[in-house]
TrEMBL record:
This is DUF3592 domain-containing protein. Keywords: Membrane, Transmembrane, Transmembrane helix. The chain crosses the membrane at residues 145-164. It comes from Alicyclobacillus dauci.
């Protein structure tokens, strides 16, 4: 009797795992369209698996060059998370041009430290995902490696001295 129960439980668990894998594979790229009102953006995000972390998140900086001051300020309507990655979400009536995305929204991408940007166009109910790739210089990567190595070595020395004391 116990072996039948064990086999039945095992089959059920295998079925649950296989079903979740199939659902993730086939429904990952399937996203519903927006219904047309700004209030529906939150519904669209939650329906498509996004968790809303913040609303109205602002990114700004000021640069001083000699006698000139340059400032930047942009608001993301939402900061949403999906699969462990954060995205800045913009809701509007039109999708900005590619050039505008690079010049206007790249600083926001860097300041907010998100994985990408999502533009929800309420006019034609379209969604556009934008991902940037930032390439670090060799000097930056070497400095980062040395910095992490020093922290690791320091931790190792503390651990050895603590163990040696015992």
């Amino acid at each position: 009797m116990m072996s039948i129960l064990a086999v039945g439980t095992g089959c059920f668990l295998v079925w649950v795992v296989l079903k979740s894998i199939v659902v993730q594979l086939f429904e990952k790229d399937k996203e519903s369209s927006l219904e047309g009102l700004p209030q529906k953006a939150t519904e669209w995000l939650t329906d498509n698996g996004y968790e809303i972390l913040k609303t109205k998140n602002e990114a700004k900086y000021v640069a001083y060059t000699g006698d000139q001051t340059i400032s930047y300020r942009e608001n993301a309507h939402f900061i949403a998370r999906k699969n462990g990655s954060d995205y800045a979400v913009f809701v509007g009536w039109e999708t900005p041009s590619d050039e505008d995305m690079c010049q206007r929204y790249f600083p926001l991408y860097v300041i907010l430290d998100v994985k990408g940007l999502i533009f929800l166009n309420l006019t034609d109910e379209s969604v556009r995902h934008v991902d940037f790739t930032v390439y670090r210089s060799r000097r930056f990567r070497v400095r980062q490696f040395l910095h992490r190595g020093m922290w690791f070595t320091g931790g190792l020395l503390v651990a050895i001295s603590w163990l040696h004391r015992m």
